[in-house]
Structures are given as C-alpha cells and as structure tokens.
Input
Amino acid sequence: MTIAPRKRKAARRPSPVPKLLFGDLWEYAPAPERADSLHLADRYGHFIDGAFVERGAWFPSINPATGETLFEVPEADAGVVDEAVRAARRALAGPWGRLPGRERAKLLYRIGRRIQENARELAILETIDNGKPIRESRDVDVPLAAAHFLHHAGWADKLEYAFPAARIAPLGVVGSIIPWNFPLLMAAWKIAPALATGNTLVLKPAETSPLTAIRLAELMREAGLPPGVVNIVHGPGATGERIVDHPGIAKIAFTGSTEVGKRIQRRLAGSGKRLTLELGGKGAQIVFEDASLDQAVEGIVDGIYFNQGHVCCAGSRLLVQESVLDTVIAKLENRIATLRVGDPLDKNTDVGAIHSRAQLEKIEELVRSGIEAGAKMHQLGCELPERGWFFRPTFFTEVAPSSRIAREEIFGPVLAVQSFRTPEEAVRKANDTRYGLSAGIWTDKGSKLFAVAGALRAGVVWGNSFNRFDPASPFGGYQESGFGREGGRQGLSAYLEVRP
Ligand code: NDP
Output
C-alpha cells in the first residue's frame, strides 16, 4: 500500500477537556424492565423433528447477573445428535426439499415477523440468560435477528438472480455451532441463510445461553416451519464435536473462539464437508488528528464496552495519532465516568454482567498481565453489584505492542491504547495481529479514510462509525479470524453448491 506523503500540519494543541458533571448532579431512578410476566419452565428439551425431546443428563443455565439457575437443559449424546441429523435429512428428502423458493420466502418472512411481534419477551429472555443490558438486546440483538430473516426472505425466491447462469443446489444438512455472546442473533445468522437456500440444519447453542434459541424454535413452529427443518440440540463442546463428526452433515458453520475453530478445521480435514469459521478478533480503531474527537470517543466507547466487550469484532485496540493522544485519553476517561454498570434489566444500564465466572476469571487474568507488563490502567471507579459477575470498564495506556493485552482477545470491557505518528505507522500497527476481523477509522478526510481502509487486513472496516451491522453486508475475517462470509450475496454462496 502506498499513501501519498503529505505535509505535516502543526500538531493540534490539546485543549483542556472539561469534566462532564452529568453523573454528579443527580442519580437515575431504577428503571427495570419487568420480567415477572415471564413464565420459564424448569426444564427445556432438545427441539427435534418439530417437538421438544427431554433426553440426556440435565445441566443448568445460569443468570450471570445473579448467579441463580434459570432452568435446565439436557446434554445431547451421540444418539440425540444422530436423531436430530436424521430428522433434518428426512425433512430435506420430504416436502421441504421440493418447496419452491417463494414458499420458503413466506416462511422466513413469517419467522421475522414473529420475532418482531415477540420482541419485548425475546429481549428479556436474552438479557436474563446472557447478562447483556436490556437496552442492547431490545435495540440491537432482537431487531437485527428479525432483519436477518426478513432480508433472507427476499433472497429465497431470487437465488437464480444472485448466481446468474449457474446451477445451484442446497448443500444438505448444515451443522451450526454458535457462541454465547449474541445467542439469538447468531442463531438468526445461521438459520436464515441456510433456510433461504433450501438446506435444513442442526443447531447447537452455547451451553450457557440456550434460552432464546428455544423460544425461537417455538416461534418457528408457530410460523409453520415443517418439522425437522431446524433442529436444536443442547450440550457442551463434546456435543459440538458430535455434530462436526456426524457423517450426515454436509457443512459446518461455526462462530466462536479461534482455538475451537482450528480444532474443527483439523477434524474436518479430508471429510469433504464444507466449513465456514467466524472466529476471534483484536480490532483496531484508528483515530487521526483531524477526526471529530467527540464523535470518535463515542465510537470507541461503543466499540469496546458494547455487550461488555464480548464481541468478536470489538474495537479492543485503540491507535491514536500522537498529537491528539492526551486529548482523546482525557475525553475517554471523562466519558467512561458516565457509564452505568449494573442490573442488565435496568433500562439505564450501559454495561451489564460478564457472561460467566470463567470469562470473568479470564478477563481478570489478562488485566493482571497488563499491569505486570507495566501498562497504566484507567478504570471506572464505580460500585459493582454484590451478586453476579461484573467488571468495571477499563482501558490501558502506555501499552507495549508485545504485551498480551495488546495481542490477545480479552473478550471483555478492556481497551489497549497505543499511539502512532503517520498513516503508514497506523496501518502497520493495526495489521500487526494474527487476527483480521474488524477495524474503525476516524478522520475528517475521505481520501485518507479510503486509502487506509484499503490497506487494512480486516474483513469489516467502519469509517467514522463502529458496530454497524446490516444483513445485506457480508461479515467475516482474515487470518485467524476465520474464513467465509455471513450476510449479503457472499453469505448465500456459503450455503450453496454453485456450478457454472
Ligand atoms: P468456544 O469457541 O469454546 O465456544 C463456541 C461454541 O463452540 C459453543 O457452542 C461451544 O460449546 C462449542 N464448542 C466448544 N468446543 C467445541 C468443540 N471441540 N467442537 C465443536 N464445538 C465446540 O468459546 P467459549 O464459549 O468457550 O469462549 C472461550 C473464548 O473464546 C472466550 O473467552 C473468547 O475469548 C472467545 N470467544 C470468541 C467468540 C467470537 O465470536 N469470536 C465467541 C465466543 C467466545 P459450549 O458452549 O458448550 O462450550
């Protein structure tokens, strides 16, 4: 990449950043979303062939904000996985396999509408099972999940236009394995394109967050989806391996950690099964001195503290041009002082619960490593709830590029700040990672934005914004962030046999 050299402007002098007094003047009254009208069962089974099947050793799903058990689900052994794959194969060979695209479109559309009609309930379920703030599940997860079904409804009867002059066919039974950070949204990302392209599937939610997939199964059945088209089995990683190994599976669509993604890739080698991997990330946000800094700070905060930082495309590295570094740090410190950490069901909460004890321990361990490596920690000095798992929004300055906090995916509300002098150095530092999923660029200059974006090795690059998602836009990574794209026309091809 070459970026035309330009004359260096006189460095912008950091103006004193006034303190925001907002949080000091008054306290918010609690505004909890009412969850008392929900009636959770004590136990939920697997969803196979259109019915809930209670078979396997039961294990609990825990509310991360309280540590209390919400309900139990059974672990799918090899027999249950086999039953689910057989149901999916029968559905493929049955009426579903002959259903014209326009009929699949109607079903997808109905599912999208059912999600919208039940949005409030789904948002509450997601929040209690996952720990994310209700504001996010209500305004991001649920609307985007619906949007994925509605978008793919539009494609289902137009596939021949998406792949003109090609012969296309569904792959067969897709095994979808999803993580706990966006349970409903990831289910929608996997189910909607698979159905639009005529496949059937077996989905495994993360063992710690199966609730919205269970409710989605009910909604899909109400929408008239034939039995066996979508099957949902519960369990730990071992259940995922059973799906990966099953000979009746044609493709694995996986979202999760790079470590497990690699393991799956090794297991599938030579099997002939198709694979798409959407894995970890260590996305860089690059702030140039000509950027609108207030806007950039909002994007930085959203990029790392959204969903407690449990986001594969989080902007977890911040690269700031040296001339505005002090100003950005002061503004950032100021801004995080206004964040509210606490009850995820409270509509005023910005940062909810860390999803599990194991994840909290991982975050704490990496933060300790940052302190030991000599980085300077800046942390919101708020009180944390007595119950549940929480972590204060944190960022580090004086971060060594070789330190673990600069290189490893923390998957928590922790940002590593570094500086740069020239666009070339910014690009070099941003690309100095084994990942390649996301990046953000903040600048007033359109030409600079496009030049830098073109030089970044990241699947998604946002310009003067961050965390913008659209089902029409392909999402995926390079290097250890995985391969294959989800969304858009590229996402459809991952579920089809396309022959010229
Ligand atoms: P995993 O990659 O272990 O989990 C993702 C999904 O894969 C879950 O459904 C999991 O089941 C399943 N799984 C686990 N092991 C196997 C296996 N051997 N074969 C097939 N499927 C398997 O992520 P974790 O939840 O354990 O989180 C670990 C770390 O990964 C986090 O700390 C975070 O850094 C990163 N992560 C990254 C994500 C991303 O989107 N980039 C998403 C989630 C985590 P089960 O839930 O039962 O473990």
